[in-house]
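Q: What would this chain look like folded?
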Amino acid sequence: MSRLLFQNLPLKTLPPHKFLLLSSLPNQNPKPNFDFRTLQTLETPSNGTLDSFMVEKILFSLKQGNTNSLRNHRFRLNPLLVVVVLSHCRDNLQLGRRFFDFLVLNCSNFKHSSMSLSAMIHVLVKCRRLSEAQALVLRMVRKSGVSPVEIVMSLVSACGNFGSNDSVFDLLIRTYVQASKLREGAKAFRILRSKGFCVSINACNSLLGALVKIGWVDLA
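A: My prediction, written as structure tokens:
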């Protein structure tokens, strides 16, 4: 990884805010075009249908600021419904924040999927609520049985509905490093590179430095 990323580039001369375009590296594939149909395929409820009327009722309650009405719907929520509601809020971040705050305050036992967590992460990053976004990333990273491939692909899939945001992937790599999951972080980085996404130089250096520090030079 270090030989590909930093060949002929003296890291100390790079400004801290500069981003390295991973799409310029070899063996790149174009970003896949994800849309709502992809989300339905990944997360269709057990009855195979999405309650569009429920989506409209939730959106109406959010616009009205009617918390009591939202509480009446909380037991009918499922991960796909969360993703779809948030996707409708992508151009109205105030509604997205309101829905996120409602979920946190009223649905503490809600069982999220990787896709619903990814949707919330994208919304929070767009709202610049980075500490809360990182808490959700950490939740995904620490979840038993969830591989880096699933985490990366769910975050990438959400780009189709929420727009590509390189800060999301930067946050993912940093979180892997902070959680001392370096092997998984290196794997996630390679997947992102193969999909043509960017990771900041600082995040790359953080991962590289942590790998070298513990002697995992083969992964660097």
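The CA atoms of residues 29 and 195 lie 5 Å apart.
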